[in-house]
Amino acid sequence: MNEKKDTNMQRDFTSITKLVEPRSVAVIGASSDSGRIGGRPIKWMLKAGYTGKIFPVNPNREEIQGLKAYPSIADLPEAPDAAIIAVSASHVSAALEELGNKGVGAAIIFSSGFAEVGDEGAAAQADLLDIARRHGIRLLGPNSLGMFNARRNYYPTFTSAFDTAWPRSGGVSIVSQSGAFGSNLATLALEKGLGAPLCIMTGNEADLTVGELIGWLATDPETRVIAAYMEGINDGDTLIAGLEAARQAKKPVILMKVGRSSLGSAAAASHTASIAGDDVVADAVFRELGVIRVKTATELLEFADIASHGIYPANNTLGVLTVSGGAGVLMSDAAEDFDVSMPAMPETAQAEMKEILPFGAFRNPIDCTAHLINDTSLLDKFMSRMLADGGYSSIISFFAKGAGIPPFAPILFEEMERQRLKYPDRLFIVSGIASEELRRRYAEIGISVFEDASSAVRAVAAMGQIGDTFAALPESPPNVPDGIDLPDDAMSEAAAKSVLTRHGIRFAREKLCADADAAVAEAEAIGFPVVMKIVSPDIPHKTEIGGVLLAVPDAAAARAGFDTLLQRAAAAQPSAHIEGVLVAETVSGGIETIMGVKNDPAFGPVAMFGLGGIYTEIMQDVVFRRCPFSPAVAEKMIESTRAGVLLRGVRGQPGGDMEAAAEMLSALSVFAAGAGDRIDSIDMNPVIVKEKGKGAVALDALIALKDASKP
Fold first, then answer.
1. Which of 145, 202, 370, 384 is the most exposed place for a label (fewest CB within 10 A)?
2. Average pLDDT over the chain, rounded to an integer
3. Is residue 194 a part of any domain in this protein?
4. 388: Cβ–Cβ under 8 A, 6 or more apart, which residues?
5. What is the Cα gyration radius of the chain?
6. Do 342 and 291 fall into the same domain?
7. Of 559, 585, 611, which residue is a domain's last?
8. Among the three residues 534, 569, 585, which one is the final residue of a domain in this structure?
9. Is the confidence at residue 605, as pLDDT, over 60?
10. What is the β-pairing status of strands 67-68 and 63-64?
11. For 213-357, where are the E strands, in sequence order?
12. Closest among 104, 310, 133, 289 to 206, alpha carbons compared
């Protein structure tokens, strides 16, 4: 993982402009051979008509591809805005130092042989970053395929993607960690007719990351949609800053992130960590920030295409007009899968449409049957009723092959164009088979064509999610306390509960007892039956050694139980430090939940909520959120889980105290944010949520500190 960047560098997105839109560029290692890495960028820029200055640097040539060549960087007539470094790895640092002395603002390093090859390469890459920061140079790479900005005819890349055509103009910008995949996306975009004239490929990300480039694109007036490809997260803070900048600028981010991993096998000490794999946490953060995550390159480009029309309906509703009943059922199923609302047409409108076409179905989907293709006058009648009476914010029209075949195809196009002009705030999709030329014509009027009907519904869902994100009022995070006092040594359950109690977490009535007499007295004070547990920072999972006694019925059992627990602990872990025995009230009833925190390496403390007890790892019905957050946000988290459904009450059951659970979850998130990097993980399992008005109590707690020593 890269060294974390300082806050000012993270947020200074404008420093990237010289990289993306330079007025001049030097090519270090320039070649007369236009097929070589040092020659191809010059070839592309000359062929495309780059209007800036190009300075080839090569000590063995006086002229390169018709341009004056310079023997060294020091000999350049001026300091170029940017430079391309296309020399062997052993010469990169010297070239970068010279560029810094010359006053260059940005550099693209094609050269490989750095962090991707091992520790020695990683050290060399760290040296490059030191040089760049010392001179104020922004770095793309190393091991980068470069970038292209067709808006400026600027092509500092050695890809072969432009042998047949240049990128199309448009508002989609691509940023990719992988050069090969980024180049592939650019090629696919060109083939699909998508306007994606800007693509940046970050490589090893010694300096510039996908997140920071997303931040720059958020400020770029010519970018309307950001399409991103990631394999790993090298700087979580910068990624969050970039995504937040895009959200504030109301620019959709369509993201494909590959590389799924689970920390379960390596995190046996924590339920939370075992469930919160890197990808699970990343997915939660992406949802929080309104990112649309996709699984395939096709989805990435399709969603970027439809997002480029700029229609993101909040509180989205879908109306479907179809000539196929089967396709209508298919799309209804997809709408349920993707949580898209498909309300029925008003009954009066259904009845009136039924009079026009008795054998049609007009609830929603509106199934006109293939008769509509024979009687095209029905197209306007039914489409107009859907939009006016149904009021749907999104419309999918399914016409299969008919969408692209005369004489119906031009009639459909004219009708869709007319409705699009009449309802410019509605999202229109045609699902069918159409030629590239017809697709382009639809794109020009702001309508996307999908061959696959289910994908069309998924796209509608995505645009609605974007709309809801943009429409939502920004949440004000709660205040986080400074200077949370935590011990240096590993914490027992009692110590963890003591700390958490001071920060708003409520636990069942209990007391740590040092001897059997104290245990009996406390049990009598609490009232039988009680729970008894061994307390040791060296025994985090007490049940595994028989260190928990439930339903202890009387004083004699409590006295015997105290001795039993000490004997079991001594047998299981003779060297364990025993603090005593915890005597606690028995809490019955309520709904068992789990609350926890994982300190994610990319995003910091992330809180978890879900079903508790034995269901935690079986059901994995959990939700995550970056810390801290308010009780209102906590309540939304809870409502998104099955536990939330139970807390609301089902089939006459009383439900639970949702507000108390939300207050506790929020308090936990605030504590974790304040503790910051001191915390590795927190588990509270189970947390019993009682009936409404009766609160919530945690029965167990475990805090794992980072690098904690054992007493």
1. 370
2. 92
3. yes
4. none
5. 31
6. no
7. 585
8. 585
9. yes
10. antiparallel
11. 225-230, 253-257, 292-294, 318-322
12. 133
Count CB atoms within 10 A of the CB of residue 348: 9
CATH of the domain at 543: 3.30.1490.20
Share of the chain above pLDDT 90, in %: 85
The span from the CA of 9 to the CA of 256, in Å, is: 25
Q: What is the pLDDT of residues 19-30, one digit of tens each?
A: 999 999 999 999
Given a cut of 80, whether residue 1 has pLDDT beyond it is no
Tell me which amino acid residue 605 is: P
Strands 679-689 and 591-600, by their bridges, are antiparallel
pLDDT value for 4: 36
Q: Facing residues of 705 across strands?
A: 679
Q: Are 213 and 94 in the same domain?
A: no
The secondary structure of the chain in percent helix, strand, coil, rounded to multiples of 5, reads 40, 20, 40
Please indicate, yes or no, whether residues 153 and 138 belong to a single structural domain of this protein.
Answer: no
- Percent of the chain whose predicted confidence (pLDDT) is above 70: 94
In tens, the pLDDT along 235-253 reads 899 999 999 999 999 999 9
Which residue range(s) make up the domain with 351? 318-471
481 found inside a domain: no
Q: pLDDT tens for residues 182-224?
A: 999 999 999 888 999 999 999 999 999 999 999 999 999 999 9
Q: 622-644, pLDDT tens digit by residue?
A: 899 999 999 999 999 999 998 88
Q: Does the pLDDT of residue 266 top 60, yes or no?
A: no
Give 117: exposed, middle or buried? Use CB within 10 Å, 0-12, 13-18, 19+: middle
Considering the domain architecture, whether residues 269 and 166 belong to the same structural domain is answered as yes
Q: Do 101 and 13 share a domain, yes or no?
A: yes
Average pLDDT over residues 253-257: 96
Q: What is the CATH number of the domain that holds 338?
A: 3.40.50.261
Can you give the CATH number for the domain in which 614 is found? Answer: 3.30.470.20
CA distance 216 to 175: 11
- Edge-to-edge, what's the strand order for the sheet holding 580-585? 510-513, 580-585, 530-535, 548-552
pLDDT at residue 614, as a whole number:
61
- Would 61 be classed as within a structural domain? yes
Q: Which amino acid is at 225?
A: V
Beta-carbon-side half-sphere exposure of residue 479 (alpha carbons within 13 Å): 3
For residue 592, the surrounding DSSP H or E stretch is: strand 591-600
- Identify the DSSP state of 565: H
Note whether 39 and 187 are same-domain residues: no
Contact 675, 643 (CB under 8 A): no
On whether both 616 and 679 belong to a single domain, the answer is yes
